[in-house]
Amino acid sequence: MTGALLTDLYQLTMMKSYYDHGMEDVAVFEFFCRKLPEERGFLMAAGLEQVLDYLENLAFTPEELAWVERSGRFDARFVQRLERLRFTGEVVAMPEGTVCFGNEPLLRVVAPLPEAQLAETRIINLLHFQTLIASKAARMVLAAPGKLLVDFGLRRAHGAEAGLLAARAGYLAGLSGTSTVAAAARFGVPVFGTMAHSYIQAHVDEARAFAHFARSHPRNTVLLIDTYDTEEGARKVAKLAPELAAEGITILGVRLDSGDLGDHARKVRRILDDAGLGEITIFASGNIDEYELEALAAAPIDGFGIGTRMDTSADAPYLDCAYKLMEYGGAPKRKRSEGKATWPGRKQVFREMGADGRIAGDTLALEDDRPPGTPLLVPVMAGGKRIHPSPPLVQGREHAAAQLALLPDAARRLHGPRPVAVAVAPSLPALAERADRGTR
Fold first, then answer.
1. Given this model, what pLDDT does residue 311 score?
2. What sign does the dihedral 424-427-429-431 (CA atoms) show?
3. Of residues 159, 243, 164, the one with CA closest to residue 207
4. Is 144 within 8 Å of 293 (Cβ atoms)?
5. Whole-model pTM above 0.70?
6. CATH hierarchy code of domain 9-134+318-437
7. What are phi and psi of 202, to 5 degrees?
8. What pLDDT sits at residue 1?
9. How far apart are CA 98 and CA 59, in angstroms?
10. Is beta strand 251-256 parallel, antiparallel or unpaired with respect to 221-224?
């Protein structure tokens, strides 16, 4: 679902009141994460492209308008306003793949208040999820440099859209590809796949199953060898390989999916090498995350299938994120709630680099401030339309790889990471004091 009703009811109730009382001045909202999850040294911004798609196409269909009217909560005048509604505002944002830290805005929306308000729920929904998954995937990329890493998580994802967007976010962050066919069709993510245990079980003989699959897929022969006995499966592959080679078929790899992956990989590697099959790679799957990748670093495993723990971000399944009003009608606005106070105004993040070429620190400041560093948020939408055509996903992937290379060692480590410090410019407390004087 991507329609305008994919929102919270209170967005509609607030919009009606805004319209009733003429509150349609320009509002400024920002999306940010208050703090990083435990054991995380950074986040990676993702989901911007889907947000821009949503905003460019935001409109109520006749069926949606009919539901609003039929609900009995809203009058005909409000329904007529919804019928004419389109997003007309501007957006500035961090490019996808940018590494970021707590309290830094990833995106700012500037639009008439009703428009900016309605967009809140779906913007959070899209940015939160892909940023969550890209951040998790990036840690796996750092834990297993040079390895083939493939997203296997669709079947355990929390719904179809989550599985599809997790494949996209994982590839953005540096994974090699996905098993999700729709992600290949829609986003151009490289797709990988072999066979399930059911394929082996459907045959009377395991070796015959291997041969059948190889002859059906002579250019992509990767065999799952642990349905019954892993090492015996490897021996069957070693026996079959010369027969297939005579037919011009090369076995590219074998997959392990259970047990002690490191121990099985060492035994399988020895069996294959003793048979002169050193070119056959070993691919492993089964509850893999960054910590398991770290533990298997010395094992002779060439690639990994990563599923449940990435697509659900199992150790940190949500981000403490928000989309808050920072300005309305030219006046600064902020929330003062205990533990959830915000800085008002249109903000920018300025990043300084150290002598080693890595990130030294960020400064959170007002948009018009000029502290040292490079501004991270850039204009991406004006007048409700993209300023530039969407960059290809591979370009975001390249940016993400460059960003990960800029992280200091303390921020990128898996255990006890230390995020980059984010300083607050003096202009923000001063503006907060002004905002406080204007509210009661």
1. 97
2. negative
3. 243
4. yes
5. yes
6. 3.20.140.10
7. -70, -20
8. 59
9. 30
10. parallel
